[in-house]
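>> received
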Amino acid sequence: MQEWVIAMLAIIGLFILRDMAKTVLSRRTSKEEELTQLCESHPQKEKAERYAQSFQKLADTFYGMPFRTDYLSAGQVDWVFCQASGKICSKCYQKDFCWGEQKHEMYEGACSLIRAIEDGQEEKVRKSKMEWTRMCARAGLFYEEARQYFQKEKQNLVWNNRMIEGRLAVAQQLDEVSKIMQAMADDLYDIEQAEPELREELQKKLKKKQILIKNVWVMDKVEGRRQVFLNMRARGGQCVSMTEVAQLLSDVYGMPMAPVKDSRCIVNGEYHTVHFIEDVSYEVLYGASKITREQEKVSGDNYSCSLEENGRFVMCLSDGMGSGMDACKESETVVELLEQFLSSGFSQETAAKMVNSALLLRRQDGMFSTVDMCSLDLYTGVCSFLKAGAATTFIKRDHWVEAITSTSLAAGFLQQADFETAARKLYHGDYVVMLTEGVLDALPQEKEEETLKEIIMDVHEEAPREMSRGIMERVLAYSDYKARDDMTVLVAGMWKK
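>> returned
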């Protein structure tokens, strides 16, 4: 199973989602009676549900295939035994006796020997060989032959497991795409016309700004936050800033409203539908400091920070195993995939699972990457953490520092990745400090976390960028200002708006 399979499926899913999004937007700009009729019949919702069911059915097909096994089956052990005995025992003068009166004992002894070879424990192999020597006149030759046939069958088992892992990776991604499609189908028509009183009030206020409203839709389902869609234009050659429109909208609905990310900046003479959502309660700033390992030109650490449309600020940090260009490419792939999936609406867990599947399929020996994600809800201040093989994350509060630790493996090791999650409530003036393992490795052994807590408390700069630099400088002082590994410190601070 090649990585292009995953890429192809992902592209197909994205194209489908794009087409569905186009359908939704086109419906939003239609006339009221057309929208009402459409909502009653839900043809596109049914279509989206069929897509979801198709992806789920295909995923179930892959899930229904054999699971990976770490040991040879009884049939495979029999095959090894038959091959070895057929080659060795056929030329032995005791063949008739061994496979006559002693047939049962010989078979049990041969199977025990093969299982001991499979376990690989020297003491167990030694005992099994001694027992087999007492039973077989050509024990040494039989052992070597059985071991060779076992290695061949074991190699087949390894390749078969890789194929199974590939199928499970595809199944997992199909399953996640199915969930996304179903969620989209559920939300597709949870939009309704604004109440006449609010619509009339909004029309009056915007008319004073030379703005004409054609349609107003409201959607309240997403996490209980109000969303408003205005189909409007400016008249008389006017250009009105979207900030002014948002302020008037806030006055009407009695809550702070803001245009979504990447919305139009002005209202001009053409009708356009603009999406507004309840404004966030917190704002965030971030900064980073990076140092490349000595004698290396490229850092194996990569990160990204982004503000999503759902009011979440997301930081992703990945440490590629080793250093240099190979480690950089590996961690860069992780960060780019995470950023793409999260911006497309995938949850942290879903994004991490899909990235793990992709890494598993393209895995090279010795090449793995950590996954470290922090998702801050700017409405509630709740911060969600997800880690796979990542270093400890720290939260700096007024007078103390909290550590978020992880003991999980890096992404790409196992199909069923061991992601560790946690959630903490942040308050005005709190900071999140994410870092790679190279930072902790520069500190005194067995005291890394406690030492770093002291360093973080000792840094009094308020700007996240300056705080990250202050932390890095103090850490380097413990290693004579020599970077023995790639080092990255990523800091984000949150304040009440």
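>> The first strand starts at residue 192 and ends at 193.
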